[in-house]
Amino acid sequence: MNNKPKVFRLFAIFCGLLGLVAQSFASPEKRNDEVVERKVQQLIAKMTLAEKISMVHASGKFHVNAIPRLGIPELWLSDGPHGVRYQIERDSWSPAGWDNDYSTYLPHLTSVAASWDPEMASLHGHVLGAEARDRQKDIILGPGVNLARLPLYGRNFEYMGEDPFLAASLVVPVVKAIQSHDVAANAKHYALNTQELNRIGVNAMPDERTLREVYLPAFEAAVKQGGVYSIMGAYNEYFGTNANQSKHLVKEILKQEWGFDGVLLTDWNVDINTYDAAMNGLDLEMGTEAKSYDDYYFAKPLLNQIKAGKIPEHVLDDKVSRVLRLMYRVGLFDKNRKQGQRNTKTHQLNARKIAEAGVVLLKNTDNVLPLSNSVKSVLVLGPNADKIHGLGGGSSEVKTPYEITPLQGLNNKLGNATSINVMRAKSAGVMPIAADYISSRHWTGTPAWTFKRYADATNTQLVEENWIVNCQYKASDNTVEQYIEMSASISPKDTGKHIFKVIGDGQLTLSVNGKQVLHEQLANGDVVEYQQALTVGKQYQVSLSYVGKEHFTIGLQTPNALFTEESIYLAAAKEADAVIYVGGLTHADDREAIDRSDMKLPGNQDEVIAKLLKTNPNTVILLVAGSAVEMPWAEQAKAIVWGWYGGMEAGNAFANVLFGDVNPSGKMPIVLPKNLAQTAPIMLNDYNAQTSKYSEGVFIGHRWLEKQSLSPLFPFGHGLSYTQFSYGKAQLSAQNFTKNKPFTVTLPVTNTGKKAGSEVVQLYLQDVEASVQRPIKELKGFKKVYLLPGETKLVSIDLTLRDLSFWHTGNNDWLAERGQFIVHLGASHKDIRQVARFTLN
Description:
Oligomer: single chain
Number of strands: 35
Shape: globular
Number of helices: 20
Distance between the termini: 80 Å
Radius of gyration: 28 Å
CATH superfamily of the domain at 349-427 and 565-666: Glycoside hydrolase family 3 C-terminal domain
Low-confidence stretches: 1-30
CATH class of the domain at 349-427 and 565-666: Alpha Beta
């Protein structure tokens, strides 16, 4: 009798262990491919044709139909890739109005790319996956891996830079991390989405080698190495047909050659047709401008073509099997599916860690940085000083619990012991009406003006309709008469006298609330004014008509000026212990659907920066942007920092770098050309709304500048530190590269400075004599290494036969030619420290 309790306890422990084992092996549907395939086919066999059809098109803005009869739940998607987007209504683009759909706002993927660190990429994916799972999402629409071919591209900020090897290396850890949380990652946009100018209609026509070597490697890595569960097709055409229904891109490469067994889904409102999309491999249609979901191309039209025998039913079965396979993989049929976490302190600290790792120190003459914590007075200027970015940019917007601006970060860092003076700098002349007053919005969330251009003075034949951020216009061709109309809704911040100012050349007509208040013929930059009392809380519709060949600007003088006069802020800059100008771009510039018109900093930033540097040469320039900008003042600046869109903890991350609590280790994932004219698409006249021929071939970004012997402003891979690193002699594992043997490049790196820090060793490969024209140096490896002062570590980078290869169009395969190769090892594309040679026999 006395042994019964002990036996009971042992039995209970045994049962508990069995339960743990059972739980660890639970849901074989999700973990065993053979079981998954059997379950998928069993479900398909039970489906009616109509039920199959319901699985390949959306039944809401972000979900796919459930089939309760068979126990198939709804499949839910959400925008990413920098956080889980706030909830959208089931059948409209309006916010659902939830109060519990806040998410961690992560640094943008450009910042991840700037870290050159797979660990940061993985960390980003883990936060995104866990939060998507907590929001009950099954597919998160990210990561994005299109390349920054052109600095003007509106969506550069969402992606991983311009280099195919860098993007391919970092997409894999992001995908794996997301999917470890029972959420499908979604690599996008497949393929060649490199401009927003006419993004739905532009026809991409690269040669096959350019396609394979530059624009597909990141997608290929996501499929072959990352095992990505889903891919989103691009808006653009590929050789005359939409990329989603391209036989070559989808059927031949993605599915047959790479063996992708996941779901290819469309973006929203894509130019496809039923037959081509169905037969060439599209699986899921998510958004189409139709009155009913039944009118989608993959709804009744697909059903009718199958019934008519035009499309075999097995084509539909394959699509349904892919959707079901994804559902099993993410655990939709699994009672033990992971639950996820959201808005945790750990996620927020991880967001800061990623942001810090991506900050790039571009220039630091005379060791202006780091700033001392003992400074008594700091002057902060610039349009991004107190700007938040989470709810802008388009589909990547995030509703976040908080967002630390650079100004808040400085306040958090310095506290009350330091006087922080904040000013908005005003230049001479008429400035465009500040965005603070614009209540009309582009759908991406940006304050904006509607812009219409007509064929003639009758304003009946519309040539162009768009949105622009500033009430400012400059004709691209001053030999042709322009007929322009612009309008916006203005919300005054004060009650009282407001003065509208118009400067320009040409005939201008200004109206307020439909009443014409100015009608003038201006020349040589004449300025005319109109005064009106405006009331806070009311909205005023302001419109302007322009006929001319030059330019115009609309300004607004308000009772309480937002901007500080030049003499005042320059005097303050002369007296302050430290001056920090936080400029760059915003999501008025970096945004989905629209490309920038030039590479210049918007507004009057260049003028203000130049005057600040003349007054105080130690002024620190901190740029927040996702695309390259011109810096005509760069030579005069001593300290330039590139911060990207750093997420909810951006301000704290920037302050930690500026004041030395974090040693910057980011490297540029894009080249910074001196001006737009240096870029290949502009130099080759290959940027327009109709066709992109990718005339530069494989010479994207930094490769093009090197080919043309052009010096960039800052090279690809560039980034300084508050310490210094020396590179020892490079060693090769062999002098001859043999196909089936490992080949490793090793070199010692030493921290020769006084601060701990990280260096990114970059390996560029040169094919000395090839049968085709190859880039002089191609990135083929990198390794980030952390070193204490005086510490030395060996860095090893492996090379594969694929790294030595180019795409041979004759063989339609990768080819590594025999001969000599040069390994270039350095701190950037231009800063090469060690060189070694080997031979491929």
